[in-house]
User: Fold this.
Amino acid sequence: MSLATDNTFLNDLISEVGNQTLQRFGLNIFNLNTYNAYSASAQANMNVSETYNKHKKNDKFYGTAFEELQAGHHNVQDSLKNKSRETVTTDRISDDDSKNKFSTREPFKKNDPVTDRVTIDSNGNIIATYQDKVVLNTKDLMQDRYLDNDYITVPSDDYERRKNEFQEMAQNAKDEATREKAKQFLAKLQKGNFTREEAMNPRFTAVKQQAEQAVNHIGQTAFSDGINMALSTLASGFIFEAKLYYSGKSSETLLEHLSRLLKKTLDQFKDGMQRGGSFAGIDIIISTVSSIFKGVFSSIKNIWDALRNSFKSIYNGIYDYVTGKIKTKAELFSVIFKSLSSAIAVFGIALFETKLKLYVGDILATAISIIIGSFVVVSIPKIIDWFMGKFQATKLAKMRADEIAKLCDEELPKIITQREHLESEMNIYYNNHYARLNTAFSNLNIAIESNNSELTLSSLKSITQEYGVKSDLMSFDEFDDLMLSDKPLRF
Assistant:
């Protein structure tokens, strides 16, 4: 049967068109950046712990801890939004001469008196500067040099008080200079993401942030996988149930068809959530271990970052094998080959779409690439299944040949030995048989020549016995009696 006339192929094609449409237009929610956000929170936790250990003997340690907490929070949020930028403290920048080079300003100093944090874009340009202050007195904030920053950040529980005091000064201060200065600080004042108490307990705060991101990543990845499997099942299942209902071959009502479709969709949603959650668990383990241990674990993290999207399909196959949905290793390998081949095919289709947009526009190019991509992605597994079937047939034939060879190795020597024994027995039997016949015929010749009836009869009896026939006549007296009787002769 050709692919074009295979109902299973057509159903798979329609389902794949739906899946790729979801992915292209942003409805595939698996590609959320909760993984990057968790990685950022793990790194933030390490930075906070390192900074705390350096400054814990300083009674103002919470100031530098607040800077690290704010930097980590910004990185987590930017990772969630897929923004290619990084927020880092100026203390960390001053420790790295390769990073402490900017075309628009002088390098930062250790314990820089002006700027505590900066946000840098993917090109290495500073796009925002921050002064982070955890102080008791509002007047301590009003240092002229702090106005050289874009933002002056205070703990979240200090913000309203600082804001009200700046507003009070901006409206009621006696001299104009103080009023204008208060307005400037009010414009740059920013509410921080952590309280003063959280800055006083930075390690606990960082761990809590990391735990929140872990839960967020597991939850969203699990929900995303569940939604993807549910939508795919709903699309293909709806077509199947509709075809069955309108074919006239089903005795079930429309409600029964829809109920079965809904149950199957919900089952797939639950299974997808379990599978997605376990995959997110692997993400968390790798990110956590690589943030604690450097060296080879960092390399493993980099490899995982590069391959995790492609590995997701392979992981799905492994998960189904472990849970019993895939029964054999051969079927598992087939799924893995399909995933890798489909990933390569999708990459090629993406390049084709980029070229096609130059001629037919974005919308039409996307539609065409979705159809072609779906056909390729669905066809590849069919082709692989065909080759795997041929491979399995060849493998089975080889196994049979191996079994036959093994059987011959074990049984052929026995057969040869038995044959030799049989030939020996047959030769003995033949020689004895030949000797008895030869004797009997010699005696018969003698009996005929000597007209010896008894010997003749005895010789005939010996000959017939050699051929398995028993004579009824034991002597000529018995022959005479037979001839005189009324019994019929039987030959």
About this structure: The longest strand covers residues 126-132. Residues 1-6 have pLDDT under 50 and may be disordered.
